[in-house]
From TrEMBL, chain A:
It comes from Actinomadura craniellae. Residues 7-242, 260-508 form the ABC transporter domain. InterPro entries: AAA+_ATPase (IPR003593), ABC_carbohydrate_import_ATPase (IPR050107), ABC_transporter-like_ATP-bd (IPR003439), ABC_transporter-like_CS (IPR017871), P-loop_NTPase (IPR027417). This is Heme ABC transporter ATP-binding protein. Its main location: membrane. It is found in: Cell membrane. One of its GO terms (molecular function) is ATP binding. It comes from the Bacteria.
Amino acid sequence: MPDAPAVRLTAITKRFPGVVANRDINLSVDQGEVHALCGENGAGKSTLMKILYGMQRPDEGTIEINGEPVHFKSPADAIARGIGMVHQHFKLADNLTVLENVILGAEPRRRWRIDFAAARARIEEMSRRYGLRVEPDALVETLGVGDRQRVEILKVLYRGARILILDEPTAVLVPQEVEELFDNLRELRSEGLTVMFISHKLDEVLQVADAITVIRRGSTVAKCLDPAEVTARQLAELMVGSELPTPELRESTVTEDVQLEVDDLTVRTAEGRAVVDGVSLRIRRGEIVGLAGVEGNGQGELIEAIMGIRHAGTGRIRYRSGDDLSDITGWPTRRRREAGIGYIPEDRHRHGLVLEGPLWENRMLGHQTERPNVRGPWIDRRGARRDTARIVDEYDVRTPGIDVPAAALSGGNQQKLIVGREMSGEPRLLIAAHPTRGIDVGAQAAIWDYLRQARAAGLAVLLISADLEELIGMSDTLHVILRGRLVAEVDPGTVTPEELGSAMTGAEGP
Amino acid sequence: MTEEKPPAGEPEKPPVSGDGSPAGEPEKPPVAPEAKPPAGEPDKVPAWRAILQGLGPQRLALKVGAPVLALAIALAITMVLLRLTGADPFSSITAMVEYGTEPNSIVDILNRSTRYYLSAIAVAIGFRMALFNIGVDGQYRMAAMLAAALGGAIALPAPFGQLLVIVAAMLIGGLWASIAGILRVTRGVSEVISTIMLNAIATGIIAYLLNDKRLAEVRPGSNNVATPPIPESGRVGELNGVLSAIGIDLPGRLYGLLPLAIVIGVVYYVVLNRTRFGFDLRISGLSPTAAQASGVSSGRMIVITMVLSGMVAGLVGMPELLGASYEYSLNFPAGLGFTGITIALLGRNHPLGIAFAALLFSFLDQSSDVLQEVDVPKEIVGVMQGVVVLTVVIVYELVRRWEIRLQQRAVAAELARETS
Amino acid sequence: MRRGLKLAAVTLTGAALALSAAACGGDKVESGDGGGDKKTVKVGLAFDIGGRGDQSFNDAAAAGLDRAKTELNIQTEEISAKPDEPDADKEARLKLLANRGYNPIIGVGFAYTNPVTKVSKEFPNVKFLVVDADQCKVEGANVLGACFSEEQGSFLVGAAAALKSTTGTIGFIGGVNVPLIKKFEAGFAAGAKAAKPDIKILPAKYLTQPPNFDGFKNPALGTDAAKGMLDKNADVVYHAAGGAGIGVINTMGGAKKFAIGVDSDQYNQPALSGVKEFILTSMIKRVDLAVFDFVKSTSDGTFKAGTKAYNLTNDGVGYSTSGGKVDDIKAKLDAFKADIASGKITVPTAP
């Protein structure tokens, strides 16, 4: 092993708008090592990696690559130094083939033409060497998430990267795909490449990393830990700086009163494809019903149909308002919300917030016909502002004030605002899509706590999450959705994440 | 019905990624992960949207400072341009200011501003909801023509005749605009296209109706065609009398309906900022998806907004019709709807901003004659107006972004404070 | 959109304006030392939209002003209107000129009728002219209105068109659908029918509807309309479309068919020299004469308020004979002219 570390960051400080500044971070990664960088969302991991990749420039501190100090002005400089980054969300052109995507922007040329033959030969050689099975001529739009990720990795390797940065690569994968990815990473390591791996999923980190660095709120709290010597729990506590919460429900609070009953609901796309296909489910008061599924299998459409945002094709939705169930299939969204359905949308930027609006206006969003936000047709500014201050306080939304636009907050704080808002006004049913995605562990625990309390008070919850532990831990009843159908109901008390993952991909029933 | 309603707000745009991917990010199929921006990097509003919707800095100092800075830059550029045309910039500007502040000119400027103001408010109502009502021009001409014909045909005692004409104009403007709204909601036709088409159709209908066999009369030997004049009892007197009562004496005739423009501006502000409806309208403009999720019926909102915009557009011709021309003729001012778009942009959709913009444009228009008199081509006025709009738009956008950075820094500081 | 078109128009007229502005500047100096014993007369002229360089009506007025400037040794100032302006702006323009000491002042176009009436009351010592006075009516002891019997001149060129057509089909293209242009159409049709009762007159084509005045400016519109007429077998087309008429004449000439010009003798216009052999005649409207007469009358003290008619009797309207294309039918045309002058024929003013 060569003497100089592949990457050495010394005393990196970055004052960066919107997120925690990186403060005096030191990090050293050896050649041919899989190095995991752990930390909560917003701890500064991504910023640090962007600094390393030349997307941001540090205010202070030095970067050394293979022992030589460098100053990156742009990712191009970093690429030239053999650094490559695989982003959390992919940057692939769907309508091009794998081959075209890989060479896009780095096309081998012969005379004036692209030398496809040379490119193909190289890609095939590389995918063999690193065990990245990809079919060069497949259209990217036909590929699954795992395949796309391999294309991204290949793309980076094709540009000569010897140091790979992977930004939360497992966030989008189901457990089986995660295994494959880790095999690929081990393959890369055996070829002498250095991998920097950002994650907050600690089991995975322990499984694949050779060394672990933990950062919390912009500072390194533990350097180069040996995975053999720490437990997931210790790591997590390092990340959070306190004791770690777990998603779990204690005693059942499920009542006999059905709050929502979905009966043979089918939702179709404009082209007539059924994206929700004959779904029936019921949620009782005091019950949390979880819905497990790989993203894009109809969960989004189902909750939009329940919210009245999307037209229900056939079937019936009934909801308890007052003492009996009323058919709300034809109700507009606003009437449903007024009847007490709260909504934590999947995509908070598009559906949950008006980013340009101040916090207090965002507090009104979805509740703009209810007190304390309005009085009759008039906005009650004082009422809305006072209640916004209450939410900021109770839900620990970190903000300098309630007049800053929502866009200025970090993702976790945005989410806390949304949760606080939707929990206000005594909802009877809460549609919670990924309620803790992208927020720090402390806030996550708080949100689970709010859910538990509301459940105990009789709230019915439909929970959708990509975090299988959250689903298993927080659900009273757990359904699996696949291609728009409810294919299985599993017992959250006994099922393991692996079994659930298999059910989600349709591999086999648990 | 199995068809899923198109998201009737704004056409969906691929999320703008903060780190500038080279090509436009292609839409992802359902299996792909949800594209969410990395934590801590707030979505950026595309500049065009910020500009059209009048997003600007929040703090008062910046709100006032930005336009002042922009106007100073615009003035400097204008001086250079004047120099390039061979004129003496200082004497030219002096001539403009001297002429523009003559009492006669002040009245003309105020009258012109009234027209511009109403037109710009009509446009701004749409802009605030990300609806581009390019059809204010057709709406106000249709409204003015038909209302003029109505006012000329029916003689009612004092306040009723005026009210009839004004209400009729609002209804006609709203009705005409509603066509574009309904087409957008039911058929997905972009309101930009439909309102442009409706302008052309309005021109055709007016040409057809403005004929002595139909709604108009041709006086013998006249080169003009006009609707029958509105009788004395149906007119709105000039404002000069009222003003001289409080000690301001102005020559000429100041539109009696000038206060109407002020009232509309106040109503616009109050409805938009203080009512539930205004809130729904604004959030629909800022984020159609979030508005829909919050329970705003986007289709209904589009039609209502279009109708409101059209109703205000219907008022654009009223000060001139009831206060000066008393008839709709070939000489009736046209093209105000297009000037309104520019002024709404310049005024950042804010009622006060629009008022300043309308006054500025009117002043520049007014000075076009005196510039010709000092041998500066009148086209320079159009160039000046363009320069003003561009500098204001650009400076505002830059200041807005700068302020966002400041705010983010404040948030970061808040977080950092807690950590240490 | 309209803004864009306007900008194009602006750049076109811009060049002309720059020229005229330069000419003005030069003249001012000249008249300063050349004025000598006489006090300097400053003539103000306010155009309707288009202004100098429109190849038509406004240019005719400008020609009259230019002649007055050279022959009478005076100073002039021209101000153009903005598109789509209300009467108040025209009043402001006239007031500006009056306040700056211009006297006499000319308003070109019928839209100036009411503004001149109003402003002339405030400036009783300033003499005003309205070219194309609306309804041929003006008020005030210091106001003259010039009105033209365009229908009479159009009658004669209509007769010429009918007599010269070999296909038996002729047409009329108007710039913008306004009553003024309908006068041209009415006279043209009446003349053609009078000369040849079985002549086929295609339905009149108007290029644009108000308030879109592109029909007076955009030659491409004229080109399209003329093509349409050619397709329907017309071999003589009369245009009353100002600058857009250039397109009509070029298209007709390109097809080796006749066009009839308007306002001035278009046979002599440099822009049309390539196709001038296909300009049968032009209906002449002596706006230049009206402007010159007025300026002259104010400087030699013969000014008389009221209205002055320009018609066939006083050659205020007429037809041109440049190129000799109508020499063979001149006798017939002159007979019609005599009949109109004597009142034997009354030419309609609306179709």
